[in-house]
Amino acid sequence: MHLIIMGAPGSGKGTYAKVLKGIFAVPHISTGEMFRKAISEGTELGKLAQSLIDKGNFVPDEITNELVKRRLSESDCKNGFLLDGYPRNIAQAKAFTEILNELNISLDAVINLNVTDEEIIKRIVNRRLCSKCGAGFNTITMPPKKEGICDLCGSPLYTRADDNEETVKVRLQVYNEQTKPLVEYYEALNKLLDINSNQPIDDAIKDIVKAVEDKCSH
Ligand SMILES: [Zn+2]
């Protein structure tokens, strides 16, 4: 199964991906995690990525494309993958189509998680993190047993500085601008699966599995 998963920041994409990789028995390939790992390991790529990020720049598309191409050539991707965080713009999507052709892979589907902006804002501004162990909570959907205190280690919880409404709105605007062309691009290729993710995760997962199976049986 060769899949892409797309969703705005706060859509729960990472959580979905962790469940879906088990169901479809494919590796979850997150470009964000690949860059974070390269940075923490201090590889050449990591150093380059860090220097660009420090200057407020994104990693150039050519580097990301090459990184993805190499990763998908590894043996664990023999039977498929679930790609997360890539492509993030139309130039990357076009390059990715060429990469797939070169690797002789046919993309099965693009899972597009649809959540309203209001819902995303509500989820993000209510996010709380443990100051010691990093565990995540949500005052509405997953409250700690004792307010402001981590269930796991008893340390105080805090709110990330960029988890506020103004910052979230800017991030959503950037995402929506970049993503719309991708939605149209994959719709034109007849690969897009629109999934309602304004519902409990288990229900959304069922919808995804059914949609992917329907897609692949045609
Ligand atoms: Zn904790």
Provide a quick synopsis of the model:
With 218 residues, the chain is α/β, with parallel strands linked by helices. It has one domain (2-116, 169-216): P-loop containing nucleotide triphosphate hydrolases (Rossmann fold, 3-Layer(aba) Sandwich). The chain contains eight helices and eight strands.
Task: Please tell me about this protein's structure.
The protein is an alpha/beta fold and 218 residues long. The protein has one domain: P-loop containing nucleotide triphosphate hydrolases (Rossmann fold). Helix content is 50%, strand content 15%. A hairpin with a 5-residue loop joins strand 5 (127-130) and strand 6. Helix 2 packs across helix 3 (44-54). The longest helix has 24 residues, at 165-188. It is globular. The model has no long low-confidence stretch (mean pLDDT 92). The site of zinc ion (ZN) has 8 residues, from loops.
